[in-house]
Amino acid sequence: MQDAATRNDEDASAAGGDGDAVYALTPTFVHAVIDALDIGDGFAVTDLVEPLHAADMADLLGLLRGRQRYQLLDILGSRLNP
Question: Is the pTM of this model over 0.85?
Answer without folding.
Answer: no
